[in-house]
Structure formats: C-alpha cells, structure tokens
Amino acid sequence: MNIFVFDIETVPDVEAGRKLYDLVDLDDRDVGRVMFHKRAEETGGSDFLRHHLHRIVAISIVLHTRDAFKVWSLGDPDSPEKELLQRFFDGIDRYTPTLVSWNGSGFDLPVIHYRSLLHGVAAPRYWDTGGDDKNFKWNNYLSRFHERHTDVMDVLAGYQPRATAKLDQVATLLGFPGKMGMDGSKVWDNFQAGDIEGIRNYCETDVLNTYLVYQRFELIRGHISASRYEQVCEQVRTELAAENKPHLDEFLQNWQ
What we know:
This protein is α/β, with parallel strands linked by helices.
C-alpha cells in the first residue's frame, strides 16, 4: 500500500483581499492586517481566515511505498501555487495512495479544493467517485468515513468536533518531537520576512509527526504488529539521518 501523508502551510491571499475589500492602495502586509481584522470582527474573536482566502505556500509530503520512505516539500521555494497543486495531484495520479492527514478534512483539503478551482487544476483521479473506476464508488478521496483519505485527527475523535486534539500535543505525548520553533500562527510573519525555506522545513516536520502518529494508529487497530511498528520507526530514523539536513537532525534529536 502506498501512503501519502501531506500537510500544507498558507498565508492570506492578499490579491483576493484587494478584490473583495477594495484595498488596491495597500501593500501586502496591510492587506493582511485588514483581512485578519475583518475576520475577527466577523467571528467575535478569532482572526483565522475562511478557507477560500488562504494561499498555499508549501505542501510537504511523506511518501511510504513498499520499497521506500521519503519526506520532502513539493516544488522549489519559488514555485507558484499552481505548480504545487499540480504536483500534489500528479502524485495521486501516479500512486493512487492512501492520503493521510491531521485535520485534512477540516482544513487542508478544502483549501486545496478552492485553490485548485481558482487555478483550474484538473485532478480527475482525486475527484472520481465511481464514474471512471467502480472501486471508487464507495471508497474515494471525498468520503469522510472511508480510508482512501484518512484524517487521523477526525478518526481518533470519533468524528466529534468537541473531541479533537492538536497534533503538537498528541505527538508530544507519544514521544515524537511535535512543534519545533514555529507554528501556523507564525507562517505569515516568516513569509513576509522571506523565510520560505523555514516554512517548508516546518511543514516537513509537521508531516513527519503526522506520519508517526498514523503508524501508531495502524498499530492500535491491528494493521501492523508491534515489531513492524518498531521497524517503521527505525526506518524513519535511518532515512532522516541520511538526509543530513539541520531541521531533520533537530527532529531526530527531539525524538524520545
């Protein structure tokens, strides 16, 4: 089975903000401030933007196949959003994997949907619900209660919003590194500072945490044995050490 664990990082879509709120004379930072302010007014507190007002600046992947394990961020630091989306769906077309996420149903995939709509990115395999492949009729990427996309947070919470948990806390409780120096609330500031590499590195550590939590989930539901789980963890340690990258080395150092 091919496993495709993914995570995205986003910033305000300032071009959308200019169009919707007539902010043509403001720079990106000020447009972002207005967008956050309007959202806080709308919700009475939270300034977290609606899904269609996010722009994707990083998509990180852990790909686990029968023969390989790899973690990376799609495209290059300066790749346009459309290219990131196209690469994401190309991976689905190539591997027909089990997609794995943490809150992917509630955030990542809806954002990907809206941004694909904006850019006109075709993804027939992803959107198939049985029209082209009868095996996708009852188990497709859009079905919440099936496994072709497994939102680990959603499943562990029993599909109850009041029972959800943060990836950072669950990963930390399980002995994995969790967040290391950055979180989603800092991505906009880092993006404004030009630190796209830092954002991509952070996204990669998030997707590694998700992958490891998913493997623990596979253990408790009997899909892998305890010995196989230990083998998977050792494989991750070996592969990350071989990459010789500072953010991955730090991840290993913080892994209990």
